[in-house]
Amino acid sequence: MTRPEHFVDLGPDLLHEQTLPRAETIPSGWFTEPRFHRLDLEAVFATTWQYVGHLHRLVEPGSWLACEAAGEPVVVVLDLDGNLRAFYNVCRHRGGGLALGDGCGRVLKCQYHGWTYQLDGTLRGVPHWNLVELFDRDDYGLVSVRVETWDGLVFVNLDPEAEPLANVFAGVSETVAPIRLAEMSFHKRVVYDVQANWRVYVENFLEGYHVPIVHPELMRMYDFSNYETDVSEYWSLQHSPLTKDEHIYGQGGRASYYCVFPNFMLNILPGRLQTNVIIPVAPDRCRVVFEYYYSDTESEAARARIAEDLEFADHIQDEDIEICEHVQRGLASRGYDRGRFSVKYEGGAFHFQNRLRRAYRELIGSGRERQAPEPLDPQQDDVGIRFPDQR
Ligand code: FES
Ligand SMILES: [Fe+2]
Question: Is residue 301 helix, strand or coil?
Answer without folding.
Answer: helix
